[in-house]
Amino acid sequence: MKVAYVNEDLMESNSMFMVADEREYLYSNMDYVPCSSINPIIWKDECMVSFGVFDITNSGDLSVTAPIAEVFMSFDPYGVEVYPNKLKCSDGDSDQVRYIIAINNEVDVKDDEKSVIETKIIKYDPEKHGSDVPEEDKKDLIRNRVRRLYLSEDKLNSLPDSHRHIFRVKNTEAFFFSEEVYNALYEIALEGKASGLTAYTFDTDDMAPSF
Questions:
Q1: Which of 32, 34, 131, 210 could pair with 104 as two cysteines, CB 3.0-4.6 Å apart?
Q2: pLDDT per position in the chain (211 positions), as tens?
Q3: Model-level pTM greater than 0.70?
Q4: Other Cβ atoms within 10 Å of 206 Cβ, number
């Protein structure tokens, strides 16, 4: 079974956009609560010139140009939130029409036999971490480190299409796309509507790309 990796061309891109907007809480966790915003959410990179920004920018979530967003949303993917986005650069605001793609569809599709994921639990200790922290931060921190990731074809096939087109792998930072989404992106790339991204398919028999 083919699955697609789609991301900013991180080897060529010089951008390091950070959220500069108090509305980040709308999409920054895995709780899928569909909502939207009239005004664009601001990302900022004061060292980047606007004409050098690629069509996909990764800052944990994705900022993409309108043609790419249209491809993603044409598949009606579950758990994907879309917000208007504005990039502030060293020479002013980018004039591109862009959207944040927040992938909050987290699914358990790793091959448990082939994958190797190390889990480290950092226990909350009032003496070390302080007792004057918010109640929601007084909890153990779980960190997962992916040594080797394989996807399960059986688990992927068991998902509804809407859950399979764009997804994050549970307990990892990895996100992937269906082959159908990749093919649609390839078509608009041929038309000159998508550039500055790394996109390819791989087989579930092979190790998944690392993040």
A1: 32
A2: 999 999 998 888 878 788 888 888 777 776 776 777 889 999 999 888 988 899 999 988 999 999 999 999 999 999 999 999 999 999 989 999 999 999 999 999 999 999 998 878 877 777 776 777 776 667 777 777 888 999 999 999 999 999 999 999 998 889 999 999 999 999 999 999 999 999 999 999 999 998 6
A3: yes
A4: 10
